Amino acid sequence: MATVALIDYGSGNLRSAEKALARAASERSTGHEIIVTADPTAIARAERIVLPGVGAFADCMRGLSAIPGMIDALSEAVLKRGVPFLGICVGMQLLATVGREFGDHPGLGWIEGEVVKLTPSDPGLKIPQIGWNELNVTRPHPLFAEIGPGAHAYFVHSYAMKTNDPARVLATSDYGDPFTAAVGRDNIVGTQFHPEKSQAVGLTLLGNFLVWQP
Prior knowledge:
Helix 1 crosses helix 6 (199-211). It is built from six helices and 14 strands. It has an eight-stranded mixed beta sheet. A four-stranded mixed beta sheet has the order 6-5-7-11, with helices on one face. A two-stranded antiparallel ribbon has the order 8-10. By secondary structure, it is α/β, with parallel strands linked by helices.
């Protein structure tokens, strides 16, 4: 049975992500088994990989780096073998070159750019942004198949990614000013929002990820 490795590195809403992925697999009849794991060998065997993340960039990167062999296993699977990869929230932010939360901290560097604090021009908008926001899909991608204009997703964040290459941006949202809501390149995608908390839109996106053939 093909497996989806949901990485447990001490940061992430693993239970809700696991349930949402399992439901998406059931609804699409993909046959995937969802495995919550901190084992690099399970990453090496997985057909797809999901990296969640909640909290500060540096803490999440530290947690990922603290698992012996994990970053090497991820790099081998994703960069060398082309295994489909989804990063969620801080799991997406870790794809960047650097995170600028509480100082400058190196990320995985898979998508060139930086993670910076949201600074909405409207002083009435509170940080973090918590709640539903509209998605603006900026370029076609299989991840957003059947997700039409006006779709909303659920966000909880104070920081967002700024990419060096605008072509890496798959979707934006607006919180006083536009910010990156989803990124992608090759076999790698990431969402700033939480698909596991985004109801029908999120389940559609997760189902799209499970059948995506980059």
